[in-house]
Structures are given as structure tokens and as C-alpha cells.
């Protein structure tokens, strides 16, 4: 049922439409002048206003202007017995939903148009609700925690978000650097623009350059058409460069120039183009140490670290672990259609005592597994991963002969558990810095990434 206002200087038209729309289940009020309509609009919001264009003293177009200024969510349908192309064009420019000529089919035409207008309003309202929900999910509400360090992080986000300054987010892998970047964007003046993110470590140098700056047709084999880069896509919004510490020195030169000049040149192109982006960078590496070791350009470091922001590892905000665990419980309950009501005290204690080298991401993975496996009303300790619930007994190689079980062992699972524990230990020893952990394990960073992904670290 919709709330309608019908405005026409012909009383017979008002009465006919009033009867028709009331029979259709709508609420309808009628007035015979623009002045009467303005009076009604002062105390009432209408879903749809149906107004004649030609009326004494003032026209339906003037009424349309007023409604657009005062009740922008109301749909306006204009009707007339003297339609012209010019008037129809003017009505469209002013924001009328429809422009109908009076005919013997006017009632049917209006009923159909009113239903279309109501459907359009419903879709707009749903889209607005979805946008608000998305903004809520990507804003501060997406960062769970009440510890002093997280509260301080919230305050810093709200302070830096309204500025256009470049932000450098530092923290171990899995701490939620992209969530913080999203929150900065959602609370900025650029929140209507795009948030574009890229993980710099996922691309080789040449591919990264093409992704960031785009390319022109014929720039290289396979470049069959021009392609926009992420700088261009993010213009007017925010560009998030994750793992910026993994970029090569030549790539850093190109990034520095783009940030300084606010201009980019596509690969293979001759012309530069202006870009208007707010840059947020992130790294789990010690960029200052990399600068000292000549692995990261000092000038780029100072350019991206105008406002440095550090996310504490989960082990340093243990009071947030139960909050996060219950947050993930609700999330995976919804996703899996389950109704698990809580987490046992024993399980909570185990979650709090574990070091979480993979930080929030590892906790999320652990809770997803627990929700999937749990058959009771609350998460029991047995549903948690073994490493969280106290770890499994891993046979020491030197004692293998004496400790080898009579029933034998699952060699593949045993080796996987050793690998996982070694990765976790190396991460903890390296304070979450993955490149250091890779060095401790005498493996390449690429291999380390593969194993970390395999075990959800």
C-alpha cells in the first residue's frame, strides 16, 4: 500500500483517481491546486505525487521542483491534456518519474506507472540498505576488539581517515591490515569512490607494472587492446598496496614518481594521465631495516609513511581473543546454517593460551573448522585444531626407534604436523615477519608462502 497525493484542478479527475487507487488498496488524498499540495506536503510524506502540469496560478513543474528539494525520495508522475516534446523533456530534466498524456486509458496507465514507481523506490531503498550494510562491514564495525591497543587504533583511524595523507599500515601477517585500510576508506571523504587493492607480492615486476599503470594496445605480446591500470580505476578513491615491501627497486622508482607527480604512463604509452588517488600501503616487513640494507628506497619510504599505523599482533591483545572467537562463531553459524550457542570455558581458555602466530586469520580458520566439526550446542575443546588444544605428540626423530608405536603411524599426517609446527615456531621467533621466518627455515620466501597458505597461517 502506497501513500498517494493527487493534484489536478479538475475535480472530476481527482475523484476518479481517488476511487481507482483506493480500490487498488492505496491511501489517496486529493487537492485541486499547487498551493493546496504545498500545504499537504508540509505535514506529510508521500510515496507518489500525481500532478497535472497545467493548473491556474502555478504549474505541476513548479510543484515538481519543490518536491525534488524537500522530499527527494518521493516519485512524481506528471499528467497533461496538452503534451509537448519540450514539456516532456523539461519534466525529465527536473526528475519526474513519468510524463503521461490524459486519455480514456489514463486510469490504467497510471496504475501501471504507479506500480513501476513503487518497484523503483523499493529497489533504491534496498540498494541504499545494502550500501549502508557494506559500509558498516568495511568500516570500524569490521574490526573487533575492546583492548586498549585496538581502541587507540580506532581513534587513529578516525583521525587520519578525513585527510588525504598517505598511510603506511604495519603489522604481522593475519593481523587485518586490509580491514584497517577499508575502515580508513569508509570513513574518508572518498568513501563514494572505489577502494582498489592489490597484493604486490603476488605479481612479477612486469605484470605488477601492467596491473598498476595499465597498458596500450601492442605494448607487448598479447596486449590486444588498451587496458586501464588500478591507479586509473581508483581515481577519486583509494588504492591499497599490500606487501609493498616485496616490490623491486625499479618498481619502487615508478611508484615514487606516480605519487609525487600524481601522473601515470601506461606501459607502452607516450602520454601521461592525471590520477587522483589516496594511497594506503601495508607491509609485514621492517621497512626501516630494509632501507638500511638498501632493499627499499628511502625516498619512497618517507613518501608512503606520512602517517604510520601499527596493528598489534593478536598475542599482545589476548583480551580480544574471546570477542573475536564469538564474532567468528556467529559468522560461520550464518554461513553453515548452524545454531551453536557458545564456546565452552575449556575451549575459551585454550584459545586464550595459544600464541596465534598467524594472528586473527589463524583464529578465523580455527573457528571455521570448529563450527564445521561441532555437533553439540557449544564449541568443545575437541573441535579445536590440535595445535590450539595443546598440540599433538610429534615423535622426535632421535627417539624414533624406541618411541615408534606398535600400531604404526600415519607418516604423511605426522610430517605435515612437523611442518606446521616448524612454520609456527619460526613465525613466532621472527615476530611474525615472514621473510625472517623463511630465512630461519632456510627456504625461499616463495616456498614459505606456499606452506603458510597450505596450513592456513
What do these coordinates show?
The chain is built from 19 helices and 14 strands. It is of the alpha/beta class and 457 residues long. Strand 3 (48-52), helix 3 and strand 4 form a beta-alpha-beta unit. Helix 13 crosses helix 15, helix 17 (411-429) packs across helix 18 (434-440) and helix 18 crosses helix 19.
Radius of gyration based on Cα positions: 31 Å
**CATH architecture label of the largest domain:** 3-Layer(aba) Sandwich
Assembly type: single chain
Q: Which whole number gives the mean pLDDT?
A: 87
Q: What do we call the CATH topology of the largest domain? A: Rossmann fold
Number of helical runs? 19
Q: What structural category do the secondary elements indicate?
A: alpha/beta
Q: What is the distance, rounded to the nearest whole angstrom, between the alpha carbons of the first and last residues? A: 53 Å
Helical residues, percent:
40-55%
* CATH class category name of the largest domain: Alpha Beta
Fraction in beta strands: 5-15%
Strand order of the largest sheet: 2-1-3-4-5
Largest sheet: 5 strands, parallel
Number of spatially distinct domains: 4
Question: Looking at the structure, what is the overall shape?
Answer: elongated
Briefly say what this structure is.
By secondary structure, the protein is α/β, with parallel strands linked by helices.
